């Protein structure tokens, strides 16, 4: 971390917290102006995602979960692109340098960097009079030309998602005291599970090699399944037909639907899932499924790619189409 | 630019402005979640610098100069590390999507991307209720292990800077209506030159290969010559003796000193120079100087590296040491 723009006292404070995370030799112990990333012929996959206080997270979200979320949303992109994590740089815009905040933030970030094999390579710490902002650019490696794209889906391919969909958006509703908070008033465990899904995504990096080997197209689900699938279809020049009853849900989310507290339309337009949406050619599905099983990541077929350029359609029981009033969550 | 977190209308607006900048095939026309940077055995040098409204730039700074400054402060780091620009990613935190601002911003950014051979690879656009923030992570290529470090300076080496020092900080003072603005009240050309140096740095990428081939240590001067030299010396485990009268100054800066409007101490602690500070072994200086001349970048010897661990000392006329009350500018 060059830490330019901070006084030397702050430099040493930041160095104290972040230097232990800079375990890659190319980070030069954060004592230089740049890092050097080794690349022996692979492509370096680059992704960048920023989160802003009051927009992407709540002012009272704990610093340790913020650190994990800021890194994991980028790890999720690397996983969906079939890339192996190589490292990241961090830009931190802070109002003040607060040790009680920086300590748990850096500690959790370091734990995730170790867990996912993605060391800190450098960064910049700037002062802001405004909201806290955490911007991470993460790097991964793939064999030359092997990054998995949004484009590439073909009619007949199967549409697959990992894990369960909708929990994170329900968790945000709990934190905001919305209808879900009311419906789960007596279900502490359910509320905690949903909040955990919102605050700490579980990126599917264990599946990255499988995605790279079998998917014709992939992206992570960050802005809502319906909207992200629409983006993938648009990039591929196709459409999709989704069986809403096949969408994998947690027991808590399913119970909320059964009770009428939320509907499937809001589940598929909620954001922050950080699951992988991928498209698998039908004749490769069996080997894909076996490889996914070996990786420990649950995968579910939710529909198929069809020809056309219309927005993907979601069908409920008895084949009735489910109208979606919005495709995804927008902060603007 | 993944442009996640923006509504589809904003997506297309941003795509319209930024897609023309994504000329590298690895940017995939900004239609994907990540970019792929080719690396045929070179090291990828990574640097990141953010600028915040009200902290690193003034609220009424024009969007075209902001775009140039945001990219050029990163290009300056690449130059000082001996790297050839390869591309960059952009994170833009905006209060609103304003076409009258985005148009000239993107246009100037595109011109600089072309001029410096550093295409846009991707990015993220986020909404913020706070100040505008522009964060850029830039990439360069060097042969394996050849990045130039802050460490490496040895006693006897010569301390060299490019261009002139202090103009940008004087330009900021003009914009803030400080003493320099008063002293130059009747010198419009002088004021404009200084403001230009503050708003649009001239990164020394033309000298990158020369730095890589001859410098024992280097960094760019962004936080003030005195402070940045102190960092280089600390990283190298040495000290330095600087002849203040050798520090290259513009005619305007020199006249301001002669008239007593500013002193050399404030010149060497001002920021935003974006010149290169480098250290050249004495026996290589002649070939370095020739190579620098061929690159068109002016270089000046301002002193020498000495043994020791004290802060570098600056000497004025008759060898008297110049006391520095502060080494560099701090925003915290």
From TrEMBL, chains A, B:
It catalyses: thiamine phosphate + ATP = thiamine diphosphate + ADP. NCBIfam families: thiL. Mg(2+) 5 binds at residue 223. HAMAP family: TMP_kinase. The gene is thiL. Mg(2+) 2 binds at residues 49, 77. Mg(2+) 3 binds at residues 33, 77, 220. This is Thiamine-monophosphate kinase. It comes from Bradyrhizobium canariense. Pfam families: AIRS (PF00586), AIRS_C (PF02769). Residues 32-142 form the PurM-like N-terminal domain. Mg(2+) 4 binds at residues 33, 47, 77. The lineage of its organism: Bacteria, Pseudomonadati, Pseudomonadota, Alphaproteobacteria, Hyphomicrobiales. Keywords: ATP-binding, Kinase, Magnesium, Metal-binding, Nucleotide-binding, Thiamine biosynthesis, Transferase. GO terms for biological process: thiamine biosynthetic process; thiamine diphosphate biosynthetic process. SUPFAM superfamilies: PurM C-terminal domain-like, PurM N-terminal domain-like. Reaction mechanism of ThiL seems to utilize a direct, inline transfer of the gamma-phosphate of ATP to TMP rather than a phosphorylated enzyme intermediate. Substrate binds at residues 56, 272, 329.
